[in-house]
Write a structure and sequence with these properties.
The complex is a heterodimer.
Chain A lengths: L6 H4 L5 H29 L7 H4 L18 H25 L6 H23 L7
Chain B lengths: L20 H21 L8 H21 L10 E4 L4 E3 L1 H21 L2 H4 L6 H17 L4 H19 L6 H32 L4 H9 L5 E7 L2 E5 L7 H13 L1 E8 L4 E8 H17 L6 H9 L2 H9 L1 H16 L4 H22 L6 H21 L3 H27 L21 H4 L1 H15 L5 H15 L3 H26 L14 H19 L2 H12 L5 E3 L12
Parallel strand pairs in B: 1-7
Antiparallel strand pairs in B: 1-2, 3-4, 5-6
Classes of the chains: A mainly alpha, B mainly alpha.
């Protein structure tokens, strides 16, 4: 209680909030101003002559053969999600490995249980052929 | 296996696990069912096992109910709750009661849904595994004493539900409702975390009992002190003066209040603004939970999500998720932050009355049955919130009673909606029931129309059914505490909402058309369960004593001093 100084919160000139947050206010103002300057300069100072030839797709000077959009293959998304999950598992494994000497048997078996549960998930993903890349 | 000696090298499985036996059981059953059914299904046989798996899960949940009943320290929980897992998990009568009802209604849900999964073309068994994960999350939520564990449980449950809402990949309504549910749920979880971080920042703790003790420390609180080996704990008045406990409370309460003093020379003096960040944090957490409950003005997601999701998912959202969120609200407001009830009862009352208003007037023009029931569930949540918002323990009791009765009657209505399968040649498009589809049910299925009308009367609050007692019980604590205006407004709006409930009965019985829709007959297992539920609606009007008594005991037992598991001097680790 003795360390808590009411003056730090009361007067805005010396206030703690001003010290901590005035930098953020500066950042915000600069970000907004810079955005306005860039977009405004690009919109007002550029001579604009739109032409259908300029706006069409580019394929080495020729007319495009076919539409470049195709259906997104969901295998990529599945692999990305699985990567995140097993990466986080590794992230939990690393401090456990380092501090294993100081943990008792409960700490050991807790991590083994965690690995077991993620192993079940891995088994399921493998068996369901979600890892096949064909 | 369980070794109570101080030598904790062998302390692998500690006795505190018994508080979470239902969660362990359901986790093991999820793992087991997942492995076994994966090995069966993903062979070349191509068996569709969803009906069998659903009934197996119902059996699992009923066994979990038996487990909860077996562990119920009914006589002891008048004076003792047990905190375990370093004060994160609490085992008291509220946790026991709500976990039982959660497992019971989830088991009934699986029995109802077993047949209709094939008709909705949800033939993967993973659908049921995800529901069981959500039930696990809801179970953990019911017995959590910690802001962090509550958040984890909310996320576990909600992530499973987002997938459930969008499970039908061929229907764009379903996918769209999944995305809406996900975004709304993620934003509400963000509010929850922001509120928790405010509360943690200004109090230094995330434990609900610590919040209670922050306002209400007593000289009988035990303090950890190594006095002699073997006797670890002393009441605080043995080694400090008893004024210590008062200054403890005073200093904590002072730390969370921030005064902002500004000099304003127009008014010749200082003005004081009063910020209490714990109250702001609590408000954010409350808003997060209101969003998840679909209370107005945060109810807009539920209309589209309930309409677009497959009906078996919608039943789970509408019936079963609400109980755990009510438990979290009770623990936060009536246990942890009860001292500042003048702050939060305003929010409960205003959002409750507004929910009843929106739920009553919004359902008037609805012809789609699922959206109608979504508005109706918004108004029910409003009734529960106003019961909680009256500052009495009767309010907590009546909120729990109302929630149980809401779950029974909602399960009846939604399951009748689910049972009615159109007898058509090929059902290729998504087909949600409208008001006119029930038209000639009185000719084709007389008992079912009787069941539906009885349920509608109960939900509307007509006397010889238990809905009347539920609504009466909700208005009673308000009037006891002289909150006359919210009570009057709620009663008037509840009369408005009876219109669309009675309109359903009118369509069933008094519609003068000659051609109606043809439905398949319903098999006998489901009719037996439905009849038991309808009987419960009538029986509980005549004899609601057991339900009232259980909820009364819970509302009284909320303030019991807990027994922290590690506070028993048996296995305190002295040589750490």
């Amino acid at each position: 209680m003795a360390n808590f100084d009411y003056n730090m919160m009361f007067f805005f000139e010396d206030s703690l909030i001003k010290k901590e947050y005035s930098v953020l206010l500066t950042f915000l103002v600069i970000a907004v101003l810079l955005t306005i300057v860039i977009i405004g300069a690009s919109y007002f100072l550029v001579r604009q002559n739109p032409d259908p030839e300029k706006l069409s797709a580019y394929e080495c000077g020729f007319e495009p053969y076919e539409d470049t959009r195709h259906t997104f293959d969901v295998r990529f998304c599945v692999i990305a999600i699985l990567f995140i999950i097993f990466d986080i598992e590794i992230m939990f494994l690393i401090p456990w490995c380092v501090s294993l000497a100081k943990l008792d048997l409960l700490g050991f078996w807790s991590m083994i249980d965690f690995l077991f549960e993620l192993g079940i998930g891995f088994f399921y993903v493998w068996y369901v052929r979600a890892l096949d890349w064909d | 296996m369980t070794n109570l000696m101080v030598n904790n090298l062998y302390n692998v499985v500690s006795l505190q696990s018994f508080t979470v036996f239902p969660e362990y059981f359901i986790t093991l059953s999820i793992i087991y069912i997942l492995i076994v059914i994966t090995l069966i299904t993903y062979n070349s046989n191509g068996l569709m096992l969803q009906k069998a798996v659903s009934e197996c899960m119902a059996l699992t949940l009923f066994m979990a109910c038996y487990l909860i009943l077996n562990d119920d320290l009914t006589s002891a929980s008048y004076f003792m709750d047990i905190l375990s897992f370093s004060n994160a998990v609490i085992y008291d009568s509220l946790a026991s009661f709500t976990r039982f009802w959660l497992c019971f209604f989830s088991g009934l849900y699986f029995l109802f849904v077993a047949d209709s999964l094939k008709e909705q073309k949800l033939t993967s068994f993973e659908y049921l595994i995800i529901i069981l994960f959500s039930v696990l999350g809801l179970l953990i939520m019911c017995s959590s004493n910690d802001l962090l564990l509550t958040y984890l449980a909310i996320e576990l449950s909600s992530l499973a539900l987002y997938v459930l809402a969008s499970f039908k990949k061929t229907s764009s309504y379903s996918v769209e409702s999944g995305i809406k549910y996900f975004i709304t749920g993620a934003v509400s979880s963000a509010f929850f975390l922001l509120g928790s971080s405010f509360i943690y920042g200004f109090t230094g703790s995330i434990n609900f009992f610590d919040f209670y003790r922050m306002y209400n420390a007593s000289i009988y609180d035990y303090v950890m002190v190594q006095w002699f080996p073997g006797i670890g704990y002393l009441p605080s008045f043995f080694f400090e003066s008893w004024l210590f406990s008062f200054s403890f409370r005073a200093s904590y309460a002072r730390l969370i209040e921030v005064y902002d003093l500004t000099f304003d020379d127009l008014l010749f003096g200082y003005t004081i603004d009063y910020f209490n960040f714990v109250e702001i944090g609590l408000t954010l957490i409350l808003f997060s939970l209101f969003i998840k409950l679909a209370a107005a003005p945060f109810h807009l997601w539920s209309l589209d999500v309930y309409e677009g999701s497959p009906t078996s998912s919608t039943i789970f959202f509408a019936v079963i998720t609400k109980l755990s969120i009510l438990v979290v609200l009770i623990r936060l407001c009536h246990m942890a932050f009860f001292e500042i009830k003048e702050w939060w009862d305003f929010y409960f009352l205003s959002i409750g009355v507004f929910s009843i208003f929106v739920g009553s007037f919004g359902g008037l023009k609805q012809r789609k049955l699922k959206t109608l029931l979504a508005y109706s569930s918004t108004s029910h949540m409003g009734y529960i919130l106003i019961a909680m918002g009256s500052d009495t323990f009767t309010g907590v009791q009546m909120a729990l009673v109302y929630m149980i009765i809401y779950m029974i009657s909602s399960l009846c209505v939604w399951s009748i909606l689910l049972f009615l399968r159109l007898k058509r040649k090929n059902i290729t498009t998504k087909y949600n029931k409208e008001l006119g589809d029930l038209a000639l049910l009185r000719k084709s299925n007389i008992p079912l129309s009787l069941a539906l009308s009885l349920t509608m009367f109960s939900i509307a609050g007509i006397p010889p059914l238990v809905g009347f007692l539920a609504k009466l019980g909700v208005f009673l604590p308000l009037i006891i505490n002289s909150y006359y205006l919210p009570a009057l407004a709620s009663i008037v709006f509840s009369v408005v909402s009876t219109f669309y409930y009675i309109r359903l009965i009118k369509v069933l019985y008094f519609e003068n058309i000659l051609v109606g829709k043809l439905y398949y007959p319903i098999n006998s297992e489901k009719t037996i369960i439905l009849s038991v539920l309808i009987f419960a609606l009538i029986f509980l009007f005549c004899n609601p004593t057991l339900l009232y008594l259980a909820c009364y005991k819970i509302s009284l037992a909320l303030f019991v001093d807990p027994v922290t598991y590690s506070s028993l001097p048996i296995d305190y680790p002295f040589n750490k």
